[in-house]
Amino acid sequence: GVFENPSVDIYKPFDNDILNLGETIEFIGAVNDEKDAKSSLSIEWSSDLDGILHTEVADEQGVTRFTINTLSEGEHTISLKVTDSDDLISTAVINLTIIQLSNAVT
């Protein structure tokens, strides 16, 4: 319908995941909007510790994905914000902990 907020979900990583510092992490989310093409929605992945992580638009199926291995050590709140052409915003949030694992193979 008109003036409905877009939908947004984070599929990976999982909420409350604990990951190793320097590990390559895959982020996958999905966005949708009743009115706008999925690939036209504005996307912003961010961390409250590291700032904006990724802003490329989603594909035609509404999938947004990227990998990163530079997240800081600590407890992150990861947000995936989607904005449609009516400036309606929806945000999905997960918590992620990055730690230096003592037995990690480097």
What is this entry, summarized?
This protein is mainly β and 106 residues long. It has no helices and eight strands. β7 and β8 (89-99) form a beta hairpin.
How is this structure best described in words?
By secondary structure, this protein is an all-beta fold. It has no helices and eight strands. It has strands at residues 7-12, 17-20, 25-32, 42-47, 51-54, 63-68, 74-83, 89-99. It has a five-stranded mixed beta sheet, with no helix packed on it. It is elongated and about 50 Å long. The mean pLDDT is 94.
Strand order of the largest sheet: 2-8-7-4-5
The low-confidence runs, each spanning 5 or more residues with pLDDT under 50, are none
CA(first)-CA(last) distance:
51 Å
Overall mean pLDDT score?
94
Structural descriptors:
106 residues; mainly beta; 5-stranded mixed β-sheet; 3-stranded antiparallel β-sheet; 8 strands; 52% strand
Task: Spell out the blueprint of helices and strands.
Layout: E1 7-12, E2 17-20, E3 25-32, E4 42-47, E5 51-54, E6 63-68, E7 74-83, E8 89-99
Parallel strand pairs: 2-8
Antiparallel strand pairs: 1-3, 3-6, 4-5, 4-7, 7-8
